[in-house]
Write a structure and sequence with these properties.
The complex is a heterodimer of chains A (about 500) and B (about 160). By secondary structure, chain A is mainly alpha-helical. Chain A is built from 22 helices and two strands. The longest helix of chain A is centred in the first third of the chain and has 35 residues, at about 105-140. Chain B is mainly alpha-helical and about 160 residues long. Chain B is flat. Classes of the chains: A mainly alpha (about 500), B mainly alpha (about 160). At the A-B interface, helix 8, helix 9, helix 17, helix 18 and helix 19 of A face helix 1, helix 2, helix 3, helix 4 and helix 5 of B.
Chain lengths: ~500, ~160
């Protein structure tokens, strides 16, 4: 009953009319900014952070939670409607979400993303409240060797996502890892591959690569098609809300996604990101029901599962944040920054020394989540309207917002030159038939992988067998190997290629 | 030797060259040993792996038969040039180019310039329509980025705002 007591204390602190208003405003602003193509959740939260400075701590946290969920959902909306992943975890949502939008089913896709996220958020909140303390123990068992093996597993999982050649997908991951290494090496301070350009010593921004490769590359490829064959949308939009059939397909996917997300989110360091990828991979492995759309062509499960996993993971990733003080991703790192401004130092002491704040925070995360669904379900119709704007007006606007978004992250024109270069690269990728999604995952994990490899080998004195002699690490690698073998099996291989054949 | 898959041939070539370039670049940093990794260790490892993967793709492209030869196809030069040029123009107009003494023209001029150039990438360019679009985008951007979010953008040309 301690759980109920704690939660009711949290809600008692958070649930005032004024706080709910702040939550609503935060969610509205977060969605409005987050939905602009080229501006992901990180940029959105960074832009809106100053708006919360003047508020009392609980109100600020609730507003931040609203901004956070609004920005994430806004990012998913852009991913689905215009094929631009604003953040790493929506890279997966793009695959089926955009295909659904193209077939006139953007409404159900957005509703699936929203409802799935809300359900996963509720479950994640409960898990966070119930297991915060005991689950920390799991994270303690993870050494650098385990992290490295976990990332290998995540990357192999990502290969299954790519359509077409496996080899090319693996090569794209490695290329992504290499691009992730550009910039100053944290250990030695050496600026790698920066060609004496000061801007490059900070590394290449995720937004820059994503906008260039996905945004510009895609627009150029679209424009090169004659108008009638263009990869945009069918004119008719059928239904704003998922049908009964959609719900039947969606519910198990949401449940599976939530379970995976809750588990992987606990791992500090990219857990929530891996969750979206893992959830999608698992959905793809389950059998299609008769008459269901194949994955990669607009299957609603391909939207619902990763979105739920992402949100559940985002919620449970508060566990390492609140217990170990490790922010699991860039968005959480910003949240930590915001909390410190309000004199809340995330770490084990919050729970014991300031239980009202701790449980208030948990309650406010839930409130932010609830605001999202209240705000966005009625707005789906409005987002769909965006699709009726003719492409000849839409693409200059997208290019413009990409350029503004890229510039605003660092207030630096160098990023604009870089995004142009990546636009050319993205078009080359499309011409050569290589999928860019694995590249992005590799790019995010590059520095983390190097760091953990370095630490693992330092601890083992250069002995590579450490990855197979430690039980947990060995089983993660074994899982990766099994996954690879399964994909390479002749029968699965032909099915996989079949599934990816363009309509 | 005949190329059996053009797409694979060139992507293999691309991966090999990039991998080799990264590996070569890595040798200029200290490599170190497994236990004491230098900044060059991981990139060298990855560069070699990428080059090998590229070589395998290249080899397959020359050996494995494909029905249509998987041609890369014609390049869409018009959209490519106009989209990228529009993007670069945005940077130049917004921030100016101090190296050639070009002053910053600010956000509004940059929006007009970019929208006009980028619109040229499509096949239905209409000057009047593009100007209307530029005005709408300028108003939206000004409201969202300058008034609401208070981003630090130069809005007007430096010779007007001083």
């Amino acid at each position: 009953m301690e759980l109920v007591n704690n939660l009711s204390m949290g809600f008692g602190v958070a649930f005032t009319l004024q706080n709910l208003m702040y939550g609503f405003i935060g969610c509205l602003l977060g969605t409005l900014i987050g939905v602009l193509p080229g501006i992901g959740p990180v940029a959105t939260i960074a832009m809106l952070l100053p708006a919360t400075y003047a508020l009392p701590p609980i109100a600020a946290l609730i507003m931040l939670a609203g901004i956070y969920y609004g920005a994430q959902y806004g990012g998913s909306t852009t991913a689905i409607l215009v094929n631009l992943p604003g953040e790493s975890s929506s890279v997966v949502t793009v695959i089926d979400g955009y295909q659904m939008a193209r077939k006139g089913r953007a409404g159900p896709a957005l509703a699936a993303a929203g409802l799935g996220s809300f359900f996963a958020g509720c479950v994640g909140t409960l898990i966070l409240a119930a297991f915060a303390a005991p689950l920390t123990e799991v994270a303690f068992k993870f050494g650098p060797a385990e992290y490295f093996s976990l990332m290998i597993l995540g990357l192999i999982g990502a290969v299954v996502l790519a359509s077409g050649s496996l080899l090319k997908a693996v090569a794209m991951i490695v290329l992504g890892l290499l691009l992730g290494l550009v910039g100053t090496d944290v250990n030695s301070g050496v600026a790698r591959y920066s060609f004496d350009i000061p801007e490059l010593t900070d590394g290449i921004g995720f937004i820059t690569i994503a906008m260039g490769v996905f945004g510009y590359g895609e627009i150029i490829a679209n424009l090169s098609q004659p108008e009638d064959k263009r990869e945009v949308f069918t004119g008719k939009v059928t239904g704003l809300f998922p049908t009964k059939e959609d719900f039947r397909n969606m519910i198990p996917a949401v449940l599976r996604g939530t379970a995976i997300g809750s588990m992987l989110g606990i791992l500090p360091g990219g857990g929530a990101l891996l969750a979206a990828f893992a959830a999608y991979t698992i959905e793809k492995k389950t059998k299609l029901r008769p008459g269901e759309v194949p994955f990669g062509q607009g299957n609603i499960r391909g939207v619902a599962a990763p979105e739920s996993a992402n949100n559940a993971g985002a919620q449970t990733s508060f566990i390492p944040l609140l217990t170990l003080g490790i922010p699991p991703n860039a968005v959480m790192a910003l949240m930590v920054g915001a909390m410190t401004i309000h004199n809340i130092q995330p770490g084990p002491q919050v729970m014991t020394s300031n239980p009202e704040l701790f449980w208030g925070l948990i309650a406010s995360m839930w409130i932010g989540n609830a605001m999202l669904i209240i705000l966005n379900l009625p707005l789906i119709g409005m987002w769909i309207k965006l699709l009726t704007v003719p492409y000849r007006w839409l693409f200059p606007a997208i290019v413009l917002f990409c350029a503004i978004g890229v510039y605003s992250t660092n207030n630096n024109t160098f990023d604009i030159w870089l995004v142009g270069a990546f636009g050319v690269v993205g078009y080359i990728f499309i011409k050569l038939g290589v999928e860019p999604a694995p590249l992005l995952l590799g790019f995010i994990l590059g520095p983390m992988m190097e760091e953990n490899l370095r630490r693992a080998l330092l601890l083992s004195r250069g002995d590579w067998t450490v990855f197979v002699t430690r039980g947990l690490s060995a089983s993660l690698l074994a899982a990766a190997a099994v996954l690879l073998i399964v994909v390479l099996l002749p029968s699965v291989k032909s099915k996989r290629e079949e599934a990816f054949v363009e309509e | 030797m005949k190329i059996k898959s053009q797409k694979d041939f060139f992507s293999g070539l691309m991966f090999t060259v990039i991998g080799a370039a990264f590996a070569y670049g890595a040798t200029s940093y200290s490599i170190g040993t497994g236990a004491r990794m230098g900044p060059g260790y991981f990139p060298l490892l990855l560069g070699v792996i990428l080059a090998l993967l590229g070589a395998i793709i290249l080899f397959k492209a020359l050996v494995v038969e494909t029905p249509d030869g998987e041609p890369v196809g014609a390049w869409a030069w018009t959209p490519l040039v106009f989209i990228i040029a529009g993007n670069l123009l945005f940077g130049i107009l917004l921030g100016g180019l101090p190296s050639i003494g070009l002053p910053a023209m600010g956000l509004i001029v940059a929006i007009f310039g970019t929208t006009i150039v980028v619109s040229k990438a499509g096949d239905q360019f209409n000057f009047k329509e593009t100007i209307v679009l530029s005005i709408i985008l300028s108003l939206m951007s000004y409201a969202a980025f300058i008034m609401l979010l208070k981003l630090q953008f130069p809005v007007w040309p430096t010779f007007i705002s001083g």
